[in-house]
What we know:
Blueprint: H1 6-44, H2 49-84, H3 100-105, H4 113-121, H5 128-138
Helix pairs in contact: 1-2
Amino acid sequence: xxxxxxxxxxxxxxxxxxxxxxxxxxxxxxxxxxxxxxxxxxxxxxxxxxxxxxxxxxxxxxxxxxxxxxxxxxxxxxxxxxxxxxxxxxxxxxxxxxxxxxxxxxxxxxxxxxxxxxxxxxxxxxxxxxxxxxxxxxxxxxxxxxxxxxxxxxxxxxxxxxxxxxxxxxxxxxxxxxxxx
Length: 181
């Protein structure tokens, strides 16, 4: 399998580390903005409906940005893991090297343009068996098959017999001959 050299992987790692630090700083700024907006909203909420609705909308937007930034940070961490395992820059669909220009533009990508086209066109329907077969062929990195490790069977469950709870029997209502009406 074709791979990038150690020197090239080191260059990619430097870029990803700087992007990671920047993303962490931006995430903290966004969280601070959310906290500040929550504090200001709680002080005078309900006084002006127009202002309240814009504050709520802004808060939702900020929370969405926080989620996206967290996902981006996770993608950067995954990219560093792929660099560590020396599979960074290898397309997860085709197994070929991803173009350097694409990796410079989107350092967290795991698919080449060809792989994306194949998936989008429907020509390539990846099944779990295909993924397992490819992982066995590669025998490396985060795609290593772990399912071959036999897990011990779960301990047998104790079946407890359910006891019937003593309940009250419905009382028979005796009809009175006395008419109160």
